[in-house]
């Protein structure tokens, strides 16, 4: 029978690429999960990207319950090692793996016990392993569980399936569901058990397959009723002895995406309204335990979301299990992101194979994401071909689920790449990085008008927010909690008025590590989360979504961190999913309002006041205080909105990458620098750039920022080069 031994404890660790002969004092004792970048919130843009060695002595065969290697095989299972890994036993390399977010296994040869098991984790820059350029930190380490799996010589496949040899495919036949179960193994017969029904079939050419019919099946029905069935496969010897057992859960459900009516679950309209999630956490990096995963899910469920985009890579298997259990429809994707690498094609295929093979049975997963903002740097024939092959691969691996893409906001809606997958979506930041809030609805209305047959979703939107900053007159770029409320109030209205937007995901559920950032009063963190990176503070916008989505009655007074206010009358906002709110000031009823979601009051203040919002048995309270002058602690000093590659601040009286090309072309010095950037040779150049070189006059009407032009010029352009170019523009004064 199969035995699983957890190996998380008692590893020796050192940042080195040299395998140890013995451990010295400079080796650190660690328990997995572990990353050497756990406290990476320095904002320095530089962090340790290299190789770390994890080593421990293997237990003896007797300790593992192995009586004879003639009848047993032993595998090492690694659930996640970023970004590339090499496994050694006694100095001999057993396997290499590229991709930091999926499981992989290595078969161990005979051992006596005491042999040194080493895992070399490498998060160094690479030109062939994704991701390499993105707005999140590439933590290094052996950051998920590691186990030994002991199985008989005849066993279910582990290596090629990533320990997911049981494949379950439910197919709808009216009220009934036909369940096909398949396994891979190296011999024996397989006894399948599905929903209490059993069938035994022989293994032929390493495969076994059976079908079952569940009559009048209970559906996996989203958050309302995420019902799960179980399936088990037992590998039998010729005498009927059980040699190996594997099992999994599955759900019966149908998904459909309609370009005019949006997303459908089990035949009914079910607009996907949710959040995106990065897996890391303050003080832990990406080295999470089940407790942290469960807390994240609890907060997302508190919000009332019915869907989640798991960005931008394969997440821990346990979190997909939580999505299944609680009914959240999931968008799953690989880290094919930001910058296309000509040498990385095979890595996109291998990471997609692992994502689908290891997660195929999860009923929560509705779509497979091919890439995210991949045209940010450039467009090329190689990029297009890569996507075509990747899309075909997904269809071979899973003919049932749609393929999708999340496109960068500057990608032209007429580009054929938009219509390659089954459904598409855009990441838009109008009202934050550029433009105004109303540009969001203008974009979607234009797209839907021109391409009514293409399903369009909203995969990212958000604004950076530090809950220490506040304003009674919030504006784009001030990083205040109040502007985040204004921003998300508008976006929610945009989405709710357009049911054909088949999915929408607030970016992000939680603040997350982004080593390149140094802005908004915080280092190394993208602050677009509705909740802080340590999960301790729910920003006011969190409760806006809770008022829209949650069925749990609640009331929330905004502005509890905005105490000192230099105004005689102040705005007080209440979010609630109740239809009536009473506001009390210093214990006296001030005003009652009926309505929904947002309740707004204008309250005179002269000193310190206790303000209380009440609805039935629900109540919330804040304190506000009149101040003779504005509290400067609420105001961000220096800098404006900075994107992930630029944290140096901008001089407003000089040009920068934020300026539009057409405006720069009116100034002689800025014009010369723009043209030199366009003419600068780069790898894998796009037709867009080649055309501009041939027709430089087009630059005079090019209504995009220099930042966007630079992004399109070279897929390998580094953040440092961008900063140097920006610094050059910052030496050119604006002309009146």
Tally of separate helices: 12
Determine the CATH superfamily of the largest domain.
Glycosidases
Reading side by side through the largest sheet, how are the strands ordered?
A: 25-26-27-28-29-30-31-32
Q: Please, what is the average pLDDT?
A: 93
Strand content: 25-35%
Overall geometric form: globular
Query: Helices and strands: which structural class?
Result: alpha+beta
Radius of gyration: 28 Å
Q: Unreliable segments (pLDDT under 50, ≥5 consecutive)?
A: 644-648
The first-level CATH class of the largest domain is given as Alpha Beta
Q: What name does CATH use for the topology of the largest domain? A: TIM Barrel
Helix content: 10-25%
Features:
736 residues; alpha+beta; Jelly Rolls; Immunoglobulin-like; TIM Barrel; 5 domains; six-stranded antiparallel beta sheet; 12 helices; 42 strands; 19% helix; globular
Describe the protein in words.
This protein is α+β, with helices and mostly antiparallel strands and 736 residues long. It folds into 5 domains: 3-152, Galactose-binding domain-like (Jelly Rolls), CATH 2.60.120.260; 166-250, Immunoglobulin-like, CATH 2.60.40; 269-549, TIM Barrel (Alpha-Beta Barrel); 564-634, Sandwich (Immunoglobulin-like); 661-729, no CATH class. It has 12 helices and 42 strands. Strands 25-26-27-28-29-30-31-32 form an 8-stranded parallel β-barrel, surrounded by 4 helices. Strands 3-2-4-10-7-8 form a 6-stranded antiparallel beta sheet. A 5-stranded mixed beta sheet has the order 36-42-41-38-39, with no helix packed on it. A hairpin with a 5-residue loop joins strand 20 and strand 21. The longest helix is centred in the middle third of the chain and has 17 residues, at 381-397. It is globular and about 85 Å long.
């Amino acid at each position: 029978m199969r035995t699983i031994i957890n190996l998380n404890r008692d590893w020796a660790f050192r940042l080195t690429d040299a395998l140890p002969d013995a451990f010295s004092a400079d080796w650190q004792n660690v328990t997995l999960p572990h990353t050497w970048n756990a406290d990476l919130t320095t904002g320095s843009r530089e962090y340790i990207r290299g190789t770390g060695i994890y080593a421990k002595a293997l237990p003896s065969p007797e300790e593992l319950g192995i009586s004879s290697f003639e009848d047993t095989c032993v595998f090492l299972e690694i659930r996640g090692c970023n970004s590339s890994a090499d496994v050694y036993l006694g100095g001999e390399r057993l396997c290499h793996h590229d991709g930091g977010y999926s499981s992989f296994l290595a078969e161990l040869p005979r051992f006596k016990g005491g042999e040194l098991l080493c895992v070399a984790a490498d998060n160094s820059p690479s030109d062939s392993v994704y991701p390499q350029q993105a707005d999140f930190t590439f933590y290094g380490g052996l950051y998920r569980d590691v186990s030994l799996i002991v199985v008989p010589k005849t066993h279910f496949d582990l290596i090629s399936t990533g320990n997911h040899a049981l494949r379950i495919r439910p197919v709808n036949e009216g009220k009934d569901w036909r369940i096909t179960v398949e396994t891979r193994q190296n011999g024996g017969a397989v006894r399948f058990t599905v929903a209490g029904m059993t069938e035994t079939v022989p293994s032929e050419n390493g495969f076994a397959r059976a079908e079952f019919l569940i009559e009048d099946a209970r559906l996996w029905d989203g958050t309302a009723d995420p019902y799960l069935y179980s399936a088990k496969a037992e590998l039998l010897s010729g005498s009927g002895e059980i040699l190996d057992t594997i099992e999994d859960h599955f759900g019966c459900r149908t998904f459909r995406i309609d370009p005019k009516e949006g997303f459908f679950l089990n035949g009914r309209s079910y607009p996907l309204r949710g959040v995106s999630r990065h897996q890391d956490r303050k003080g832990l990096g990406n080295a999470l335990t089940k407790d942290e995963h469960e807390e994240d899910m609890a907060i997302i469920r508190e919000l009332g979301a019915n869907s989640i985009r798991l960005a931008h890579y394969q997440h821990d298997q346990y979190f997909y299990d939580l999505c299944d259990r609680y009914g959240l429809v999931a968008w799953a994707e690989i880290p094919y992101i930001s910058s296309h690498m000509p040498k990385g094609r095979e890595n996109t295929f291998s990471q997609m194979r692992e994502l689908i093979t290891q997660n195929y049975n999860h009923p929560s997963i509705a779509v497979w994401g091919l890439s995210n903002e991949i045209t940010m740097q450039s467009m090329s024939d190689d990029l297009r071909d890569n996507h075509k092959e990747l899309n075909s691969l997904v269809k071979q691996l899973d003919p049932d689920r749609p393929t999708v893409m999340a496109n960068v906001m500057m990608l032209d809606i007429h580009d054929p790449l938009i219509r390659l997958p089954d459904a598409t979506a855009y990441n838009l930041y109008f009202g934050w990085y550029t433009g105004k809030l109303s540009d969001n609805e203008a974009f979607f209305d234009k797209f839907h008008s021109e391409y009514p047959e293409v399903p369009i979703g909203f995969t990212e939107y958000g604004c950076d927010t530090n809950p220490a900053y506040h304003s009674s007159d919030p504006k784009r770029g001030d990083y205040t909690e109040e502007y985040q409320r204004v921003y998300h109030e508008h976006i929610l209205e945009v989405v709710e008025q357009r049911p054909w937007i088949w999915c929408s995901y607030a970016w992000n559920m939680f603040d997350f590590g982004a080593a390149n950032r140094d802005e908004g009063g915080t280092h190394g963190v993208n602050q677009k989360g509705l909740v802080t990176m340590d999960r301790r503070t729910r920003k006011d916008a969190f409760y806006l979504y809770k008022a829209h989505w949650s069925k749990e009655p609640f009331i929330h007074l905004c502005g509890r961190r905005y105490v000192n206010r230099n105004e005689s009358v102040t705005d007080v906002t209440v979010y609630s999913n109740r239809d009536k709110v009473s506001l009390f000031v210093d214990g006296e009823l001030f005003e009652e309002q009926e309505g929904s979601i947002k309740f707004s009051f204008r309250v005179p203040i002269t000193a310190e006041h206790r303000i209380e919002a009440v609805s039935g048995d629900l109540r919330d309270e804040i304190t506000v205080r009149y101040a003779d002058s504005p509290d400067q602690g609420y105001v961000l000093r220096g800098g404006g909105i900075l994107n992930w590659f630029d944290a140096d601040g901008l001089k407003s009286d000089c040009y920068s990458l934020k300026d539009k090309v057409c405006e720069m072309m009116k100034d002689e010095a800025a014009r010369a620098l723009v043209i030199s950037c366009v003419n600068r040779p780069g790898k894998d150049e796009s037709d867009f750039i080649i055309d501009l070189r041939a027709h430089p006059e087009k630059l005079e009407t090019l209504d995009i920022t220099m930042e966007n032009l630079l992004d399109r010029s070279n897929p390998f352009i580094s953040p440092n080069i961008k900063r140097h170019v920006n610094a050059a523009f910052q030496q050119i004064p604006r002309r009146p």
